[in-house]
Amino acid sequence: MEASPKYRVSGIPKSSSKFIGGLAYLWNMKIALPSAFEAQMQKQLGTSYGDFAAALAQPTPTSIRRNPHKLPVAPTLPEVTWNKQGHYLPERPFFTGDPWLHGGAYYVQEASSMSIALPLQQHLNLSQPLRVLDLCGAPGGKATSLLSALSPESLLVTNEVVKARAQVLVENIVKWGYSNSVVTQNDPSHFQALPEFFDAIVVDAPCSGEGLFRRDAAAREEWSEEHVGLCSDRQRRILSDVWPALKPGGLLVYSTCTYNLEENENNLAWAQVELGAESLPITFPEGMDVTPSLQYGVEGYHFYPHQIQGEGFFLSVLRKPGSHSPSAAGKLKKPKLVLAKREDQGLLKDWLDERHTWDGFWQGDTLVGIPAPLLPALDQLARKLYILHAGTPMAERTKKKPNPTFQLGLSAAIRAEAFPLHELSYSEALSYLQKNDLLPEGVGTGWVRVGYQGQSLGWLKAMPNRANNYWPTPWRIRQAPKEEQKWSLAHFCSPST
Q: Where in the sequence numbering do the catalytic residues fall?
């Protein structure tokens, strides 16, 4: 077996990558900050504006967040203070060349955004079953972070209204591999058909993107005061549309990747008056230098790049008036879903692990497994929303016997002893992810689950002289890494490190 590739960064020798990375950010600085934005931030930050402006000329920190079900042991990397599953990398590698990324062992996420679950951890009991909506979910960073924080008995609905972005969200949720998740594609107003359904709603609102100025020159070019006003109006519509779906006493986490008051504090003050929301405080770990804002009597928190090892971010939490009681499982009455029959239960038991009591339903010719207590809630969702993905699609019905799905191959709930993992070398794993034809030595015949360094990637169907590759075609790697770009997080998790 090939050794895990050593740490290299995008074809750049380690000694020079920081220098070249710095030049890239200085190149972005050639597109000047908008003068109105500079005036806004000088007023907002006062004497610390110079430090803020200097931070925008520095390279963006690179961070990843591991999947606790797939990677329970932390890599030997510096930890993100506010999320113990988050880690910083010394430089940005060529992530596309890491099989572990494609297998859902970790997610590449900006560190400030990893704080999204803090308000829920402090103001709700996350050990109990909850229904949580991630309203503006793509590409999936906050959804996967929430799944890692919630109990296995909780249900996360993650939504994206834009079709192309919704497909990216599905891909990342499938790779993360949790069965207590649903992906929908709906306008925020559609959730009014589910009154008082959710215990918590997360709105990471589309915004003017001021927090992206350090890494995205286009964000600077597109910014204007008029655009800020349009964003604020849209954010208020989103909050107003989704508020009826929140239970009394439930929480709404509101965040943006922007700095201005109009899209942040002003919207919270508006929600207090128009929606009757109560603004709640958030406590941050020691050493986490965020800036609290108490303007208009609301609790909000700014993450500035000169104070924290992350990008620009704003975080707050609102509570709906009333007394909160957690979601009950409920009962199925005249289900819309095509429920699994008694003869299907053996397959659910044989192919899925023992962490849950499983139930299932048929979506066409695909059997979907889902934790049994979540099925009534899923049936309610199916009546009102457009569902793109739910649970773990696990088996395809055929004339002979069922075939495993690619989603099952990436699921954290797969019964490992039912499908032993065949280890691929690094080069074989990359070839598999490119959807090339390959027949690794010793795979035998039939359905074979393949992976790299213990992380499952999916299926080959092996025959005596060839094998069919079942990695999804839309996800295939189109550009293989050059020799100097080869990298894997596995290097930081091996016993030798």
A: 257
